[in-house]
Specification:
By secondary structure, the protein is mainly α. It has helices spanning 10-38, 43-57, 59-71. The chain contains 3 helices and no strands. It is elongated. It starts with 9 loop residues before the first helix and ends in a 5-residue tail after the last helix. 1% of the residues are buried.
């Protein structure tokens, strides 16, 4: 995903990207939750929901990493 550098400066682009990623995961989880209501076999959907939960759990470490990079001047 590319951000317009005038709107999203490089120093905040990683945080912005993580937020977009997190929001997309939430939308997917909500959609799969709705699918569960009509599913004859919930196994596959529950597996996807579990994978989305894992991905969501990894967001906070991504934010900490982006903050650490910015603080160390290792990130523009």
């Amino acid at each position: 995903m590319l951000f317009n550098s005038t709107v999203h400066p490089a120093r905040t682009a990683t945080d912005d990207y993580i937020t977009v990623y997190e929001n997309k995961l939430k939308v997917l989880a909500a959609a799969l939750g709705e699918c569960l209501k009509c599913a004859a076999d919930e196994t596959r959907i529950r597996t996807w929901l579990t994978e989305l939960e894992r991905a969501t759990d990894e967001i906070e470490p991504l934010r900490r990493h982006a903050t650490a990079l910015r603080a160390s001047a290792g990130h523009p």
